[in-house]
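Why should sequence recovery work at all? Because a backbone constrains its sequence more than one might expect. Tight turns favour small or flexible residues, buried strands favour hydrophobic ones, and helices have their own preferences. The token representation captures these environments compactly. In the example below, the structure is given first.
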């Protein structure tokens, strides 16, 4: 089984902690090593290198949180490279290695039922994480409430429509969704539509393009944006996305054509989303405190290993995943947006306050030359 080797985030402290705990990650410089047979194994199955958060943030945070709860648990990390077949093989290998629990961000929820069936047959609990598997039984899942995220994005966008930001209507809007069939996509879209449908029906908004973005990938979003611009002959008032990778793809397409069209619908966030807020290319974002989700997942995982019900203080809802009602911890998120006359650094500071990124990390790439970054890091 191929262990993840992409622990690229420059958080030396996190890496040092993981190395000190003898975690099996290549960033420690030790390569793979035999597991301590006295420890209980938990596997964290990441979907891909995009979004980057699962490798750079959630994974290390989960390992730290679980180690505090029970130092006799060893966490191993694997990365599916975007392939459900690979992820299924990784899950089977983890089960064969004696895993006591699997924490899974699905590589493709639409084809994840086999993984859940294999875990059920082996009596290994699965904890779904953020973009969970579907169409099968799970012990529980933890997620930043996708319906609420969609509502947050659409509410802000609707406010701009009603305020006349785009001029007299109807506002010509292009909408780019996430990977088709994902729990997150389906529920986020429901949340957005709850707010936007009345404006579409009364003619305030005209949706000129809409498309799903396979794997939430920036390059696929860029292609979809290019196709929309060609279809409409660049007659688009605004793009509304689902996630920072998607907005980054849209912004890349617009820049390649020297077009200035506002982009809304950031979420997660990625570094690019916060950087583009500083440059003014992206109007808003939904922040998720990754460490909070990782901590909740650690508590749920420990309960699963101990054979206890999911913690009632965290797991208060259920979600139909197509095969079962899954006990779910729905976490709250924070919406931020640019405001006229307000330093964008004041807005992005909220992401720093939540511990998602540091200013040193944000002030790279497209944001490095901004006034905010010159003031923050020189």
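From this structural description, the recovered sequence reads:
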């Amino acid at each position: 089984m191929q262990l993840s080797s992409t622990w690229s985030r420059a958080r030396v402290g996190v890496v040092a902690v993981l190395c000190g705990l003898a975690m099996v990650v290549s960033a420690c410089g030790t390569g793979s090593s035999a597991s301590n047979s006295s420890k209980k194994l938990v596997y964290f199955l990441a979907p891909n290198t995009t979004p980057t958060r699962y490798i750079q943030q959630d994974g290390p945070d989960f390992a730290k949180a679980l180690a505090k709860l029970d130092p006799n648990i060893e966490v191993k990390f694997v990365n599916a490279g975007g392939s459900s077949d690979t992820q299924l093989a990784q899950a089977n290998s983890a089960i064969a290695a004696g895993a006591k629990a699997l924490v899974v961000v699905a590589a493709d929820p639409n084809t994840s039922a086999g993984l859940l069936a294999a875990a059920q047959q082996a009596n290994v609990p699965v904890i779904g994480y953020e973009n969970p598997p579907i169409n099968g039984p799970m012990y529980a899942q933890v997620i930043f409430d996708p319906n609420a995220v969609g509502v947050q994005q659409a509410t802000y966008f609707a406010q701009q429509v009603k305020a006349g930001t785009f001029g007299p209507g109807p506002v010509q809007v292009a909408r780019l969704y996430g990977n088709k069939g994902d729990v997150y996509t389906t529920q986020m879209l429901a949340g957005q539509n709850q707010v936007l449908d009345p404006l579409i029906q009364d003619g305030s908004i005209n949706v000129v393009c809409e498309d799903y973005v396979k794997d939430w990938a920036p390059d696929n979003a860029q292609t979809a944006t290019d196709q929309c611009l060609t279809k409409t002959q660049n007659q688009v008032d605004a793009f509304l996305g689902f996630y920072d990778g998607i907005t980054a793809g849209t912004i890349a397409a617009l820049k390649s054509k020297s077009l200035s069209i506002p982009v809304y619908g950031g979420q997660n966030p990625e570094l690019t989303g916060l950087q583009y807020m500083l440059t003014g290319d992206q109007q808003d974002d939904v922040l998720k405190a990754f460490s909070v989700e990782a901590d909740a997942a650690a508590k749920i995982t420990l309960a699963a290993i101990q054979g206890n019900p999911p913690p009632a203080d965290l797991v208060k809802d259920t979600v139909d995943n197509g095969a079962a009602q899954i006990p779910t911890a729905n976490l709250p998120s924070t919406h931020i947006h640019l405001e006229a006359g307000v330093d964008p650094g004041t807005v992005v500071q909220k992401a720093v306050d939540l511990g998602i990124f540091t200013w040193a990390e944000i002030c790279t790439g497209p944001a490095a030359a901004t006034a905010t970054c010159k003031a923050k890091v020189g």
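A few observations help interpret the result. The chain has a mean pLDDT of 90.
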